[in-house]
Hints:
mainly alpha
Amino acid sequence: xxxxxxxxxxxxxxxxxxxxxxxxxxxxxxxxxxxxxxxxxxxxxxxxxxxxxxxxxxxxxxxxxxxxxxxxxxxxxxxxxxxxxxxxxxxxxxxxxxxxxxxxxxxxxxxxxxxxxxxxxxxxxxxxxxxxxxxxxxxxxxxxx
Length: 145
């Protein structure tokens, strides 16, 4: 069943064509500062002259925690996109390998046909020539591949 691998390869390429624009169209991650600003202003409103030195590490820790959460979310999103791109790369290489094998098979068939035709023409021009199996073109000297 030669059509089944072709069907598999074409379905794989169809999935790649459908998914790749979705990956390209994703927007860059944005750092939402409005939530941080509101919470930081609430925390700063509670700061007075007496507890200013104690409030500084609390505010810095809050901002650092928010940035760390944002970086973790961006890293997770990056990992997901990277995994999807890796899956697409596997599908592309699989399809490429299949089409390369198919191309080589077709080239061998054409080589065999060419040899058979040249042998038949030789037999027609000289009926007394001995019968031999034609040598495929890719086995002949001078061919680079």
